[in-house]
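Lab notebook, design round three. We kept the backbone fixed and only want residue identities now. Task for the bench partner: fill in a sequence for the structure below.
Input structure tokens:
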């Protein structure tokens, strides 16, 4: 599969390139990324045929949206798809430090959670200004759920059901976005949202990967309902790319053992683990795109090469034989 291929969202007239560029690194995730380095990642993605770009106000405390918007102004609006997120209002604050929430040199805007009608509308309008785009294609509710909010989640969920979803519906009805949904790290909250609001798409980070497939029944529900899935975090915070991290922390023993078993199959069959991780989610009918973050041209070029690497059918069958993927899990070999 080529990075430039597209898949259509079932519920709307919108198609995404099968690999998208995640733009958290444009916001100086973990370290400062000079503008020209970030521009190099964008250019390499564009030259490879990638036309889907995902950002958020939270990334770099508005830096990512500003940078991506500047880069996109060089191209015709109909030639790309962009998604951004709501759920945090970025309030001016000159006390923001040199590092915050994992972002180096964040801009002086403090994120404040707000999933209310007014909060969603304000965040959306601010994003339009920063991106320089009248109507972004996809709008995700960002980071709702117990993983982010713990005991406060009921409060924020009531904001969303009491007004935030209404705002999403109005923006979609007015044609200011083509698709709406959630961008989260837990599939359960997407399932909950589907019971109370008609979403088109969800970005699910880290929960349907080569390493972790507990969300399979949920994924099947999405395919049946026509809810598209954008798969993010397919390296599970890096353990499938060699850094021994899982969910942004040191990986526990059982997860390390499973990752080592996957790597052993890759080694035995001369397949790169990164290639297998990037290609695996695309076998599921619900998945329309895999979003891959990249800091520079070399990183996105490497990810594209991995995504397009030829993997023999025998490799996927061996994973199933060794119990590393379940019997009901779709594999790329089954697409062929």
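Proposed sequence:
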């Amino acid at each position: 599969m080529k990075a430039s291929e597209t898949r259509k969202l079932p519920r709307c007239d919108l198609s995404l390139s099968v690999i998208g560029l995640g733009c958290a690194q444009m916001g100086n995730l973990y370290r400062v990324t000079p503008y020209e380095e970030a521009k190099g990642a964008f250019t390499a993605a564009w030259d490879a045929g990638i036309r889907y770009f995902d950002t958020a106000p939270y990334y770099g405390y508005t830096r990512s949206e500003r940078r991506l918007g500047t880069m996109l102004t060089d191209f015709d609006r109909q030639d790309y798809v962009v998604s951004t997120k709501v759920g945090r209002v970025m309030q001016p604050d000159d006390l923001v430090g040199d590092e915050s929430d994992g972002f180096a040199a964040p801009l002086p805007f403090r994120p404040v959670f707000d999933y209310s009608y007014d909060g969603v509308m304000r965040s959306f309008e601010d994003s339009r200004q920063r991106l320089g785009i009248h109507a972004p294609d996809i709008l995700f509710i960002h980071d709702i759920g117990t993983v982010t909010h713990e005991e406060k989640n009921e409060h924020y969920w009531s904001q969303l059901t009491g007004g935030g979803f209404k705002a999403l519906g109005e923006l979609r009805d007015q044609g200011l976005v083509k698709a709406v949904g959630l961008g989260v790290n837990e599939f359960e909250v997407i399932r909950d949202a589907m019971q109370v609001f008609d979403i088109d798409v969800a970005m699910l980070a880290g929960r349907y990967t080569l390493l972790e497939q507990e969300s399979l029944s949920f994924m099947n529900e999405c395919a049946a309902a026509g809810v598209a899935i954008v798969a993010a975090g397919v390296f599970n915070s890096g353990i499938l790319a060699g850094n021994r991290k899982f969910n942004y922390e040191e990986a526990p023993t059982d997860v390390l053992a499973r990752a080592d078993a996957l790597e052993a199959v890759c080694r035995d069959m001369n397949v790169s683990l990164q290639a297998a991780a990037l290609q695996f989610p695309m076998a599921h009918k619900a998945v329309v795109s895999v979003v891959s973050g990249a800091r520079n041209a070399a990183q996105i070029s490497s990810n594209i090469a991995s995504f397009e690497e030829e993997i023999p059918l025998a490799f996927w069958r061996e994973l199933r034989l060794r119990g590393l993927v379940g019997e009901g899990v779709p594999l790329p070999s089954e697409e062929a």
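Keep this in mind before ordering anything: The CA atoms of residues 135 and 176 lie 5 Å apart.
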